[in-house]
Each structure stands twice: as structure tokens, then as C-alpha cells.
């Protein structure tokens, strides 16, 4: 005789957890709300040893109160948690491993904690399941890494437990959806509890417990770059990008990486790009966080639409005043969504352009450095050809044509993936190398494959102060290598170029120098920047942009 | 401090303008002074640099510069405070372009 299988064990387990929590919190539990001093009691009974726990560690917004509470748990009662996090940003995110409360980690990006993460791994205190790109990790929340308990952060809640996540919505909808609809438990920390929310971002029916944190959650102004720190070389490279790529391919829909190289491009749109007659022809639709450096281009009428992964501190009032450009709710404040913006950047953008630290002779690019496990974040989703894309655009078609010219492959398009890098980084560290540090890191940290940020076969152009290498037009591995050497400047990789072959590539337009593009280098000065400092950005916004204190240097 | 001197013979292009100074001597930057002078069609470049031990790279930067411009009867003095090769090339090109513009 067979025993009838029970099909609702997850639901039953969820009910047990809710019941235990109700008993422990007693009268302190008012509906879904309980006071912050009871968070330890709540977590001790909600969590079970071995649980998969998704802690909202975002790119910007951090569930910092809940992260701290986790570190104070009694490891004798709760241990071997399996943490799921898109970003490890706070020390607490690793303290749980140090204290033996958690033992396994699946994540995406860990830049701020990269060195300590590497140490904990080698000390055997932490087991990495895998390092993911953002979309990849979110996808697994719905397949084989579904959270049992989610700990998220919202701006405010009402008394029923509805949440307003506001401009920094980021990962919250994705995490809550995966957890709530697979009979998991959702706990939200909020900055305030109010009678009426500006809008409902997460309905109360998907939320089990709400706790008001004693201090507002932390948000990192990750994408703010002070224009005062942009160099003339960066201006020159931005000119080459605009004239040699944006204009050449009529790139209208795009994503910019983080850093000063792309900030310079944003600040050259209303000046240099406008002088080339490119307004309305390039850079109109974006998947981008609300970079303050985009304000002059928005004000100049270059930009039609911006969908964002997260928000940026200080941009709230400016965004509210430009609802035609940004995605805002009926209440007027922005709503971001990292998963959807990542999908938008992957499928609906014609170009990704971003910086990197190292590029090898195949064009593989990596930000991995020895002794640090930093992960990936979103760049690989942006910086990869979308093989599932079918709709056409001029940029996509042209890139596809170039890659297939002279072959009898069926026509299709290709995404432009541009790596922009100065040939030497600070302290004369060459950005071009024969072998990526990623190989050594893979060995040190026992990874199956070296952590490559963007694979060479996805990279279409490499842009340095030395010129642009168009890898789409290369017809052999040797040509590709020489095209890369040909823009690697005076690095050892660049000096080892085959000069005749590089000149041949230049004749064929595979390598283009600034002078080949008709760029007057005398114009490459900071005068070309639409904003030269933070104050200029504030002025361009009509006083609506309010930079965080540390950027207020006037 | 290191001083490096380069001389390229048989240049083709005379600048024929007054002296030009571009750039400033500050960290990561350099100043470039360009003068016309009878050097029997040669171009002479003197580099004073704060960064010691980059002779090979300077040589390559100067070779490429000479190939780009083929200057004759030209003396260039460079005071460098650890500029990258990119900045060096940009400053030198800016100085020559400024000379050519002025001579028009």
C-alpha cells in the first residue's frame, strides 16, 4: 500500500511559522505590524535552520536593520542559512557567515565587500553556490533558488501592510513575488508607517510582517560622478564615441555603464553631439539609473525616455518635475525595477557602452582582481548580444551586416557592445594584458571558470584614447588580436603589435584614429563639458537636483 | 628626475610660427613648448620627466609623434609630471595643431 503524498507541505510549514510568530509576539503583533525591539524574537521563530533567505541587499537600497538583526541571532538555534542576495554591500552581509549563522551564498555583486568575501571563502566559513549576473540570479529565484523567507526594505507601509517602495523599488517586487507565491514568508522593514501611502508598490496580501526600523534604510549614491574629475583624455574618448559609434550606427536606445568615461559622453551630448547635428538622431531612449550627469542632455531635449534599475539620491525632485522622461507613479514619484530594466537593457537597447579594468587579446574583459571576489552585477546582461531578439533597428541591422559581410549566413542583427578604457589605468597599470588576472583568481578561489565580465565574442568595439577597434569587421582571430593591439597604445600589448598589419586594418576602417574620424584634438578640453562641476548640474536642473552632502564641494 | 633627448632628421613640415606653450606642469600633466629654430631640417625634443624608468615608452611615443608630423626645424621642450602616454600625445598634437593654425 502506498501512502498518499501530501501536496501542501510548503503551505503547512508556512502556517506553522506564522503561528509560532503570532505566539511569540503576542500582543506586540498588531495585524502584520510589530515593534523593532521584537525583531530578534520574530526571526528566531520564523527562520528554520537551512532556510534559503533572500536578504534585500540591493545595488543602492539596503534592508540594513534586518541585516543587522540577522547577525544577532543565536547560531545554536538558527544556522546554516543559505543567503540569496543580489548585492553584498554591508559588513553585516558577511558577519552572518563569520558568526556561523549562515553558511552558503548565492549572489551577484559584492564590490564593497570583495576582499573580505575572498578571505571568508578561503577560511572555509562560506560556501559560494555561484556568482551570477542580476537577471540570472532573479531567474533562479523562480526555478531552483526560491526563497523560504524574504527580508526586504520599503519606504513606508500602511497599517494593513501595503508597501510603498518609491523611487528605489529596485529588487523588491522580484524578491517578494518569488517568495510570496511559493508559500514563503515576507518580512519588510520600513522607514515609516502611515495612514495613507502615496501609492501601493507591493500589496499587503504578499507581505506577512512589517517592522518600522529605528533609522531609515541606507541608500548609496552609486551613480553620481563629479564632472570636475573628468580628464581631457576622457573628453577625447567621448568625442570618438559620439562621432565614431553613436553617429555611425544611429544609436538611439542604449545603456551606459558606471564611471567617468560614460559620464563624459553624457556631458558632451548637448555640446559636441549637438554641434554635429545629432540631436534627435542618437541617445534618445535609455535604460539607465537617473544619472545626474544626464540632466544637461535632458534639458537640451536630447532624451525622450529613461527607465531605471534604481534611483539616485538627490534626483527625486528633478524626476518628479520631468514625468515625460522618467517612469513615475500617479503620485509623481519614480518607480524603478531592476529586473525589468535589466530585461529592457538586454532586449530593447541597441548598445551597451561601459568601462572595464582589463582586456585580453580576444577582447574578453574583466574587473576581477587578485584577492577580491567582486562578482558581476548587471553589466554582463547589458553587454551581451540578445540572442532572443527579433525586432530590427538601424543600429542592430548595421552591426549584424558588418559581422556577416562576405559570408553566406542568414541576415540578422547584433547588439553593439562597446568597451571603453584608457590604455593605462592609474599608476601606469596597463588595461590590456596577455592573460586576465581572472585566471589566477579562479584558481585561488576554486572557481570552475575565470570570472569574465564581458566575453570577447560579445564585444563589438574597443575604444581607447588611441582609437576605435571595430571587432565586427575582423575576419580571423589574428585580425582581431591585431585590432586590439592596434588600440592598446604604449602598453606592452600595444607595443608588440604587427605594425604593417595594424596599418592595413586602419586602411580598411577596422581601426579608426581620432584623426581618421575628423576629430580636432584641440577641441578635447574640459570646456566641451556641458557641466564642469556639481554646481553646474544643480544649475542645469533649475535647482531641482539636490546632491548628497559629500558631493557639495562649493 | 630624468632628461631624455630625441632628434629626428630630415623633417618635411616647417611650422614657421611663434612659440606655442600648451598644458601645465601639475600631477599627471605636462607642458609642451614648441619653437621654430634652424636645425638643418631636424626636429629636436627634450623631455624632463618626474617619472624615472619609462624610456622605452617615451621613445615609442616620440617615434609615433614624428611619424604623424614629420616636423622640420622645430625644437620641443617638455616638462612632465607623470602624464600618461595618452596625455603626452594629446598635448603634443594640440601644440602642433595650434602652431599650424597660427601660421595659416
Automatic annotation (TrEMBL), chain B:
Listed InterPro entries: Mal_deCO2ase/Cit_lyase_ACP (IPR023439), Malonate_deCO2ase_dsu (IPR009662)
Q: What is its main location?
A: cytoplasm
- The coiled-coil regions, if any, are none
Provide the protein's localization: Cytoplasm
Note one Pfam family from the annotation: ACP
Keyword terms: Cytoplasm, Phosphoprotein
Please give the NCBIfam families that the UniProt record associates with this protein: malonate_delta
What name does UniProt use for this protein? Answer: Malonate decarboxylase acyl carrier protein
